[in-house]
What we know:
The protein is an alpha+beta fold and 286 residues long. 66% of the residues lie in helices and 13% in strands. A hairpin with a 2-residue loop joins strand 2 (200-205) and strand 3 (208-214).
Amino acid sequence: xxxxxxxxxxxxxxxxxxxxxxxxxxxxxxxxxxxxxxxxxxxxxxxxxxxxxxxxxxxxxxxxxxxxxxxxxxxxxxxxxxxxxxxxxxxxxxxxxxxxxxxxxxxxxxxxxxxxxxxxxxxxxxxxxxxxxxxxxxxxxxxxxxxxxxxxxxxxxxxxxxxxxxxxxxxxxxxxxxxxxxxxxxxxxxxxxxxxxxxxxxxxxxxxxxxxxxxxxxxxxxxxxxxxxxxxxxxxxxxxxxxxxxxxxxxxxxxxxxxxxxxxxxxxxxxxxxxxxxxxxxxxxx
Length: 286
């Protein structure tokens, strides 16, 4: 078995994208504040200009007989009216621009959320077996390499258990492949229920599974296996017993992870052969 390096989380390359989403949301909030500020300023300026025009055009407020002054006043009033119109046009233009920016921001934020959801789904598919929900082989080998390195550094025990389902082909042939999938899912569910949070369970392929047990020696394995047996599942009203063979070994300092897994597989298949031999002997006696 080829050992891969420990896997970096798929969130790492996606981190800049996740950081941009709050930044875009903050930008949208700033845009909203700018929008309110512009409306407030527009209203204030319009009120002031309206008051000035009203004051200058109301004959009773200003009593000056000078024709030159009156002429200048009329030009000032027309200028103020033109300024109000220009300011209103500018305000309308700015509001249209703000609304367009807000719409673009909202669209980009929604797009970022969709991309983030897809990235999380791709990460899950890259790390998890889709049928059983357990880690896949790639993750198992990466974690095994990391835990073997830690065990060699600190001297903590490390145990792996290899599993192989007995008579799985017969289940598929008798009940169909959907029943076989149900068996795999039930076995994975039971594995997850008996291990600790620090342990790792993985589907290595087909009907082969692996449990990685950091800081656990082989003397504690039998208690775990006893919690797995007996096991059965139900499919279309038929109860299907789930039997398995298991082989477990403890990590030896300095050995490669390939060698570690090979030893576990040898023990597993030796146990499987002996189980079949015992079954044949039992059938011969019967």
